[in-house]
């Protein structure tokens, strides 16, 4: 297993690249690299949970804000 650390915002990152583990896990989930501008959202289990069922990929920040940060979270 690769070495990781918590960055200043509390997100787990790989020591060798600085890449957030959640972005790597999301890429594995969708079967491709993330495109520029795509946003990874962590669900109900918080920022340290990088399980694939806790991660969603949005096309851009606008879509992320509309879907993930509304009071009604029926999309979960």
Notes on the protein architecture:
It is a single chain. With about 80 residues, the chain is an alpha+beta fold. About 25% of the residues lie in helices and about 20% in strands. The protein is built from two helices and four strands; from the N terminus they run E-E-H-E-E-H. The chain has helices at about 20-30, 60-70, and strands at about 5, 10-15, 40, 55-60. The strands form two sheets. Strands 1-2 form a two-stranded antiparallel ribbon. A hairpin with a 5-residue loop joins strand 1 (about 5) and strand 2. The radius of gyration is 13 Å and the shape is globular.
Concise synopsis of the structure shown:
With 76 residues, the protein is of the alpha+beta class.
């Amino acid at each position: 297993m690769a070495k990781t650390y918590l960055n200043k915002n509390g997100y787990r990152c790989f020591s060798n690249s600085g890449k957030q583990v959640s972005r790597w896990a999301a890429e594995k989930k969708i079967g491709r690299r993330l495109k520029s501008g795509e946003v990874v959202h962590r669900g109900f289990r918080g920022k340290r949970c990088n399980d694939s069922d806790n991660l969603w990929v949005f096309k851009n920040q606008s879509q992320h804000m509309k879907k993930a940060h509304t009071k009604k979270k029926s999309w979960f």
